[in-house]
Amino acid sequence: MLVHRDRTTRLDLPTASAGEILDAVFHTVPEGVERIYIIAGDPWHRDAGRYPYLRDAVTAWLNAPAASWRTDTGRGKDRMAGYFVHARNPVGRYQHVSGEQHVEMRSVGEWFDSDGADPATIRDAFVLLWKALRVHWPDAVVMGSPSQTGRDLWTRTIPTLGQYADGYPVLSEELRGLLHATAGQGRTELITPPAVPEQLPALVEYDRTFAYAKHTWKSAVGAPRSGSPPRHSPPGARRNRRRPCSGLAQVV
Q1: Checking DSSP bridges between strand 2-4 and strand 7-9, what pairing results, if any?
Q2: How far does Cα 233 stand from its chain's mean position?
Q3: Taking Cα atoms as reference points, which of 157, 129, 160 lies closest to residue 143?
Q4: What does the DSSP assignment read for 53-87?
Q5: What angle do CA 82, 86, 90 make, to 5 degrees?
Q6: Which one, of 28, 33, 24, 83, lies nearest residue 58 by Cα?
């Protein structure tokens, strides 16, 4: 079932390959559509039984040959290219062989729990979200994912005049690379606690994504610089170095 604006169309997708979905969609909707959300069925898991891991099945589905499409190579620094391989919510970015059409294929699971929801309900949810954003930002758009949309909205809060006229200060490339290479975040650790029952009573997941926003809201950003103590500093005053912290952690 395909929903585009106020139209609902039933599609025939025997294999549900990426190429088949793209061809079927663009035979139905006008050119210019930039994003397709998959609501149900998880087509990238159709051959999951042939692979040891879901990521392998997703990779194979994204890279399967498509006669009329190829992997998108991007259109400038603000346009992402290639595929994002994720076991549950992958992103496929494709370009028509003519070079005129660019489109993303994403899982709506990035936004909503779609269990039991029909495509029209998901469409209405996106429309309501867009209208709510437009109340505060008249030119706001709903981007591909919540994180992309959140970052776009956050950048709109940065003044364009005064001290930020030349852009918002962030860490240098060197320091960002160092933090990225040495940070221990994003790990998944499997442990076996003692006395594990045969059936676990519950499964709990803690998401601390937004905790970082509170921790770094008033932290320093920009290139580090040395500061001198006041001329009449008390005995024992020392020269301190300002420690930088990436402000981009506010929106993850």
Answers
A1: antiparallel
A2: 48
A3: 129
A4: SHHHHHHHHHHS--TTEEE---SSTTS--S-B--S
A5: 60
A6: 83
Report the alpha-carbon distance of residue 251 to residue 212 in Å, rounded.
8
Cα angle, residue 87 at apex, residues 86 and 90 outer, rounded to 5°: 40
Task: Express each pLDDT in 97-133 by its tens digit.
Answer: 988 889 999 999 999 887 878 888 999 999 999 999 9
Domain edges within the chain: 2-117+247-251
Tell me if residue 124 falls in helix, strand or coil: helix
Mark 19-50 as b/e (b = at least 16 C-beta within 10 Å): ebbbbbbbeebeeeeeebbbbeebbbbeebee
Report residue 196's pLDDT band, with 50, 70 and 90 as the boundaries: confident
Q: What pLDDT was estimated at residue 233?
A: 46
- Work out the number of other CB atoms within 10 angstroms of the CB of residue 249: 16
Rg of the Cα atoms in the chain:
24
Instruction: Report the DSSP beta bridge partners of residue 93.
Output: 104
Query: Which sign, positive or negative, has the C-alpha torsion 27, 32, 37, 43?
Result: positive
**The model's pTM:** 0.65
Between CA 100 and CA 32 the distance in angstroms is: 9
Greater model confidence, 184 or 65:
65
What separation in angstroms does the CA of 242 have from each of 164, 166, 223?
A: 19, 22, 9
The span from the CA of 51 to the CA of 44, in Å, is 12
Q: Please report the DSSP string for 24-51 in residue order.
A: HHHTTSPTT--EEEE-SS-GGGTTGGGS
